[in-house]
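Final paragraph of the annual report: two paired records, presented back to back.
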Amino acid sequence: DAHYFGGPPSWRNFLSLQPVPLERKSPDEKLILVAASKDANVADHIAREVIAACKDTFGEDGWEFIFKPHPKERPETADSARRAGILQDAPLLETDASTNRLIASVDCSIFNPGAVGTTIAGLLRKPTICFRDEVTNKNLRELTGSEEWYPADHGACISAKAGNIREMLLKACSAEGAR
């Protein structure tokens, strides 16, 4: 039983993505990217969980957070006050760089299941986490009819949920995770 993992030939373009120069406050600081779902409820849920996990894992000053809303986020799901309340708890690093180039630049990127970013990170051999819980799995099921996400189910990225996100962040940001 063979599986092809790659995508269309044009995806080879991702292999030449150049990292974005990002200023770190210190050499040990971790840069964490959350690139979001088209459903702002799901995006904000992931951001809230990841921010709490980063605080517990890296402390107050050991990380910076890059949040990239989906370019086609559905306006009917957005709540700017809710999002501002979530993001105010994170040391935000603002950048206009594309999500794809940021994947090549950060210590760890985090996506919902169904996100193409998990595949891009896998192609680039960059540490990435697919955040999976009842909220994100429900969203994937509504989009695809299934809770299966091939990159996460077959090792192209790390699967994590609220109960183990801290452990998975440490793994992804370690020398082992960077390989």
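The closing record of the year follows.
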Amino acid sequence: ITGVEEGVPARLRLARLNADDGDTDGALAMYQELLDLPGDLGADARLGAAELISRRGDGAGALALLEPLLARGDDELGARARFQAATVASRMGDTDRASQGLQELLAMDSVDVRVADPEGNLGADDEGRMATFLSMPLRGHGGRVVGVLALSSAAKNAFSETALGTLKLVEDPAAIVID
């Protein structure tokens, strides 16, 4: 890490904490200072800023921030950006774009079971709804997606590493049954 990037992970975490504490303006200002950093640090800032902008009702602004990440391909940040873009599109009422984004996500070979909610932020402002959501594609013969295995909870960060491991264990048997 270079001198300029040295404190960036801590600043990203502080921005998330500010957002969690209700200081959306402060968090957004911190993220916007970091948007143009190269690599994953700038990408994390874009994801955080896009989430806050989307929650304010500016779906188009959030999608514009996510565009560079969507071009990254099949890496983890590209997958997170696809999920977030699909969520934003859904909030905007654009079900076609949301569906297309989720289909692209499911087609990615690198999709991690935790990609949907890596920091436990999904639905954090939706009391009584999904605070944690995770999903994984079920692949049949030839690698085609035959279904999706999904879990959700109203509690943030509801699933332990053991639960995630168990979910991964049932992936193949469930795909066989469905296929």
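The chain is about 55% helix and 10% strand. This concludes the annual technical report; the extension proposal builds directly on these records.
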